[in-house]
Design a protein that fits this description.
400 residues; 22 strands; six-stranded mixed beta sheet; 28% helix; 12 helices
């Protein structure tokens, strides 16, 4: 009802996999923090933004310890999702190959050492072993190949729905087609006072969590909060591969050819790239189909790694949005100067694979004042002003 006021202990803005994971984790840990009345606002339907167009790959290969640890801890939740959260996330173990070129070799080895230091199961394998794992692949040109045996993919929309279903069961109120219009603060601007919806409803609250993906910068700008995030458009293709030549294959990333890939269903191969993106000014308006130029560019690059794909059938393609930060790492932090205001955005195409642990850590940060399970200080908002960016290696961190 327009003009109506209700109260909540926390309001989460955004119903993608991040918002749903945060809401669920807050609800599951209510005994520790006392935030009992939780409301999630979604402008459209659950997962209708970036989540619904995610490639949903699950992998650990990152150049920084914070991202590798987030991914590794999230993998544990994906693998045990039914027991920990309930429902189905669609986790499918395929293994994950990462191909490095000669120019990447030193960084590649250093990155694997970083990943292993936080517990990731990964290591360099021989070309012969890679050929056995991925029949039909060209492997001889790779300077080194890493393999993650437990990585794979899942169902991004299904995961968001599973988190939402458990959140509802724990008492979270989820409001679909209810866009948030603004965050109200106290008279002196020092703390959150309420969230207003586009329909004019007012939810009095002391905690507001902004998990709005590509809408983040434009949502926060009217509040005088400048975040260095841009929305970018990325395309994905599906090919029907010849099963007699490539009967199966793991997921993977090819740093030399700037592509990532994974199997889809029984006979499809999904491919995306990491060397091109278009800035999107308005997340409401962007081309949602793959372009002919993208098809002509990416197809031969994929065929260099999987030669039989040169004669495959292009089934379809689509485009989705990333929310990019300057160092390709997310922001998970409270907003300084406004007590009770939190930000979770800027995942730069990596959000889904990190989402289980992100939700748990944000619940710790909101409920207890700090993330206890692991150190997320490298993901603080102030790092940009401080010039203390994460050292994101292009070939390793941009590929989704």
């Amino acid at each position: 009802m327009t003009g109506a006021t209700e109260t909540a202990d926390a309001v989460i803005i955004g119903g993608g996999v991040m918002g749903c994971s945060i809401a669920c984790n807050l609800a599951l840990t209510v005994a520790r923090h006392g935030l009992r009345r939780i409301v999630l606002l979604e402008r459209d339907t659950l997962g209708s933004g970036s989540t619904g167009r995610s490639s949903a790959a699950i992998r650990m290969h990152y150049s920084t310890a914070v991202n590798a640890e987030l991914a590794w801890r999230s993998l544990h939740i994906f693998r045990n999702f039914g027991d920990i959260i309930g429902g189905e996330c669609g986790y499918t173990r395929t293994g994950y190959l990462v191909f490095a070129g000669p120019d990447d070799l030193d960084s590649f080895r250093a990155n694997i050492a970083t990943q292993q230091s936080v517990g990731v199961s990964t290591g360099i394998i021989s070309a012969a072993d890679a050929a056995e794992l991925a029949p039909g692949f060209a492997v001889a040109d790779a300077a080194a190949i890493a393999y993650e045996p437990y990585s794979g993919h899942a169902d991004a929309s299904g995961t968001a729905y599973a988190y939402a279903t458990r959140a509802r069961a724990e008492g979270v109120a989820i409001r679909l087609q209810t866009p948030a219009a603004a965050i109200e603060t106290s008279a002196d601007g020092s703390r959150v006072a309420a969230v207003r919806t586009a329909a004019g409803a007012r939810i009095a609250t002391g905690v507001a969590v902004v998990a709005t993906g590509p809408w983040t910068a434009r949502f926060l700008a009217p509040h005088g909060i400048d975040v260095p995030l841009i929305a970018t458009r990325h395309e994905v293709l599906h090919f029907r591969r010849p099963l007699d030549l490539v009967p199966y294959h793991p997921g993977g990333a090819d740093i030399s050819n700037r592509i990532y890939f994974r199997p889809e269903g029984q006979d499809l191969t999904l491919v995306g790239n990491g060397n091109h993106s278009d800035i999107v000014d308005d997340p409401e308006v962007f081309a949602q189909r793959a372009s002919p130029a993208f098809i002509q560019d990416v197809w031969p690059r994929l065929a260099r790694r999987i030669p039989p794909i040169a004669d495959a059938e292009l089934v379809h393609g689509y485009a989705g949005l990333y929310t990019n930060s300057p160092d390709s790492h997310p922001i998970m932090d409270r907003i300084a100067g406004v007590d009770g205001l939190y930000l979770c955005s800027g995942f730069s195409g990596h959000g889904f694979k990190l989402s289980p642990m992100v939700g748990a850590l944000m619940a710790e940060l909101i409920g207890s004042g700090q993330a206890a399970t692991m150190d997320i200080s490298p993901l603080r908002l102030s790092r940009f002003a401080e010039g203390d960016l994460n050292n994101a290696g292009y070939g390793f961190d941009v590929l989704a």
